[in-house]
C-alpha cells in the first residue's frame, strides 16, 4: 500500500514539472498572463508534490525514542507550509492580473493554445482518476489534499480554455479576469489547507461521526454495557483515543482486563488510531421509581 502512495507521489512530480514548463513557455511566447499565472500555480504543484513525496517517507517511519507516537505530524506540517506558499503565490498572481488589466496587451492567437490546454486538462484528469483509485486502498491526508488540488486544476484549465476562446475573438480583457480569479482561488485553497492542517497539528478532535463509530466498536465487545466517555485528539493524521467503558460491577479483574484489551485492539484495528487508552468503570443501572 505504501508503495502505491510512493508511486503516485513520483508520478505527481513528473507530470506537474511537465505542466509547469508547458504553461510558462506558452505564457511567455504568447504573452498570456493567464498561462503564466497557471505556470506559477503549477510551480506550487511541483513544490507540493516534492514535499508530499518526502513527508510520506518521514510519516511512515517507525516510532523511536524521541517520537514515541510516530512521525504522523510530518504530512500536516508540510501541508501547512504548502498552504502558506499558495497564499503568497495567489497574491502574486492577482498582482500580475491587475497590472495586465490596467495595461492591456494584444495577445497573438494560435491554435497551439487549444492544444496546450487540452494536453494539460487531460493530464490532470489522468492524475485525478489515478490518485482517487490509490486512495480507495490507502489513507494519506497529504495525497487526499492533493486530489482536491488536481480537481481545482481541472476547473482552472476549463477557465483557460474559455480564455483561449476569448482571445480568438479579441476579448483580451478575459485573460486578465481569468488570471485574477485564479489568484483568488489559489488564496482560498491555501487558506483551507492551512486551516485543516493546523487543526491536526493543534490536536483537534475527531468528527462526531468518527467518535460514534469508535463508541459502536466498543459497544459490540461482549461484556461492555455502556460507553460513558470517548475523547479524541489528532496526533498528525492519526487519532489518540481515550474511552471509558462500563462493565458489570461484579466482573472479575482478569475478565475486565481481557475485555479492555479487546476494546483497545478493535479500536486500533481501524487504522487511523495510533493509541487507545481504555478506562473501566462499574456499570450503574439507575431505575426510576
Describe the protein's topology.
Elements lengths: L1 H28 L3 H27 L13 H30 L9 H24 L5 H28 L4 H29 L6 H12 L6 E10 L2 E10 L5 H16 L4 E10 L7
List keywords for this structure.
8 helices; elongated; 2 domains; Alpha-Beta Plaits; 289 residues; mainly alpha; 3-stranded mixed beta sheet
CATH architecture of the largest domain: Up-down Bundle
Task: Report the average pLDDT across residues.
Answer: 79
Structural class: mainly alpha
Please tally the β strands and state the result.
3
Number of helices: 8
CATH class membership of the largest domain: Mainly Alpha
CATH topology of the largest domain: Alpha-lytic protease prodomain-like
Low-pLDDT segments = none
Secondary-structure element string: HHHHHHHEEHE
Helical residue percent band: 55-70%
Radius of gyration: 25 Å
Within CATH, the superfamily of the largest domain carries the name Cation efflux protein transmembrane domain
For the record, the count of structural domains works out to: 2
What is the molecular shape?
elongated
Largest beta sheet: strand ordering: 1-2-3
Strand content: 5-15%
How many strands, what sense, and barrel or not for the largest sheet? 3 strands, mixed
The separation of the N and C termini measures 57 Å
Amino acid at each position: 500500500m505504501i508503495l502505491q502512495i510512493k508511486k503516485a507521489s513520483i508520478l505527481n512530480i513528473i507530470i506537474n514539472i511537465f505542466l509547469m514548463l508547458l504553461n510558462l513557455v506558452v505564457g511567455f511566447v504568447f504573452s498570456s498572463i493567464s498561462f503564466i499565472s497557471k505556470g506559477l500555480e503549477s510551480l506550487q504543484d511541483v513544490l507540493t508534490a516534492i514535499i508530499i513525496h518526502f513527508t510520506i517517507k518521514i510519516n511512515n517511519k517507525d516510532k523511536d525514542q524521541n517520537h514515541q507516537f510516530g512521525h504522523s505530524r510530518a504530512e500536516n506540517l508540510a501541508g501547512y507550509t504548502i498552504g502558506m506558499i499558495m497564499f503568497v503565490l495567489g497574491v502574486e498572481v492577482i498582482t500580475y492580473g491587475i497590472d495586465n488589466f490596467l495595461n492591456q496587451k494584444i495577445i497573438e492567437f494560435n491554435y497551439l493554445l487549444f492544444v496546450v490546454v487540452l494536453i494539460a486538462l487531460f493530464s490532470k484528469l489522468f492524475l485525478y482518476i489515478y490518485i482517487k483509485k490509490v486512495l480507495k486502498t490507502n489513507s494519506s491526508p497529504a495525497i487526499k489534499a492533493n486530489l482536491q488540488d488536481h480537481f481545482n486544476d481541472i476547473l482552472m484549465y476549463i477557465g483557460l480554455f474559455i480564455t483561449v476562446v476569448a482571445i480568438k475573438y479579441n476579448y483580451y480583457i478575459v485573460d486578465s479576469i481569468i488570471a485574477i480569479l485564479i489568484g483568488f482561488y489559489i488564496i482560498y485553497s491555501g487558506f483551507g489547507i492551512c486551516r485543516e492542517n493546523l487543526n491536526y497539528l493543534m490536536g483537534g478532535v475527531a468528527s462526531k461521526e468518527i467518535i460514534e463509530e469508535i463508541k459502536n466498536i466498543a459497544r459490540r465487545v461482549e461484556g461492555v454495557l455502556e460507553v460513558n466517555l470517548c475523547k479524541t485528539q489528532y496526533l498528525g493524521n492519526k487519532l489518540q483515543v481515550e474511552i471509558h467503558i462500563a462493565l458489570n460491577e461484579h466482573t472479575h479483574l482478569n475478565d475486565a482486563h481481557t475485555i479492555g484489551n479487546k476494546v483497545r485492539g478493535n479500536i486500533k484495528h481501524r487504522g487511523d488510531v495510533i493509541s487507545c487508552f481504555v478506562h473501566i468503570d462499574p456499570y450503574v443501572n439507575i431505575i426510576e421509581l
